[in-house]
Amino acid sequence: MTSTPAPPPRTTYHEVLANPRFRLLFVTRAATITADSLRIMTLSVLVFATTGSPLMGALTFGIGFLPQLAGSMLLGSLADRVRPRRLIVAGYVLEFTSAALMGLAHLPVAAILVLVAVVACLTPVFGGASNRLVAETLTGDAYVLGRSLSNMSSSGAQLLGLAGGGVAVTLLGSRHALLLSAGVYLVAAIAVRLRLPDLPAPDLPPPGQGSERGSDRGSGSLVRHSWAGNKGLFADRRVRKLLLAQWLPSAFAASAESLIVPFAGRRGFPAGTAGFLLACLPVGMLIGNLVVGRFVRPATRERLVATLVAVLGLPLVGFVLNPPWAVCAVLLLITGTGFAYGLGLQRAFLDAVPEAGRGQAFGLLTSGMMTVQGVGPAVFGVVAELASVGAAMALAGLATVCVAGYLTRESRGSRLTPLTSAGTG
Fold first, then answer.
1. Domain 16-200+237-420, what fold?
2. Short-list 202, 230, 233, 210, CA closest to 80
């Protein structure tokens, strides 16, 4: 009589955090996201206070997202061709330099937006290298839990940055608040430089061996290599659908998020309410990722993708009624939990992309998401100018629900299977 083999033990968050390389990347990423939130909160409030325009406030919120696609398309292959420690450190140093410049120099609004956009062009390269290291360090469900931990830390870091942003601006002033964020980037760069091993890139030989490919690393080759890699990713139907499934819901939610400051201003909410409302989203994200990542089994996570996308969008529809701030807080909290939909797509995306090009694939995923999150605030900012801020936020919610409906229809028609199963599209 043969006995049924016991299922493999479930991976725990403790086991994931016990990995020193992941722990270093996890902590430095959380710290720099806190700095990002502090910087974005400071600039968004300042620009809206200066111009009084919801469109300008939304553009300030999203300008760091929009240019990332260009950087990924032209430079994305660097994430797989340069030693990851060098890239990650260079990224943090660049962020430090830009934040310090904005804090020390009295730049006009247009110059600030241009500076943020220029830095954003290189962000996919640095982020792709970091995400590729995580994928190499963690395997199986440990990778999904690692992404869950990263999402939760992102939520907590955003909460800290947004909550601390108002306090920092009040106590230190906007210039010193920007310098504070610059200091965090500098500390992260030093930590990675000292603690992360100088690992080779996938197509570099180990230290001490020569490279026969050095002559093929000019800027022209880099652009061609990056462009060809991205074309290959888009040509794969399964990869393409997985990219869109991760991009669109987040883009619509970010559009609504970018209008929270103008919404609070137009409604005459008490001082500090905008920061509190912005913080409700990351709190919801923290709760959603904790519950779905820790207590929901992998197969169930994948089946819940469309449902969680609907949870992401439905509460935003209520903003058309211009509810009081307490109701707004509850709606945004529920909306935040829906961001856990991404956990159901992580393993499928990792399986779908070629191993040698993971850095570029992660860079494309992030840059595409940031780009649509940059376009969305501009589009819905125009709607807010023409109609009302609440109506624009509700429209973003309806668009998210439409994406959930599409995913549900695909699933019922048995066409969603390639998204969540192994194999190529």
1. Growth Hormone; Chain: A; (1.20.1250)
2. 202
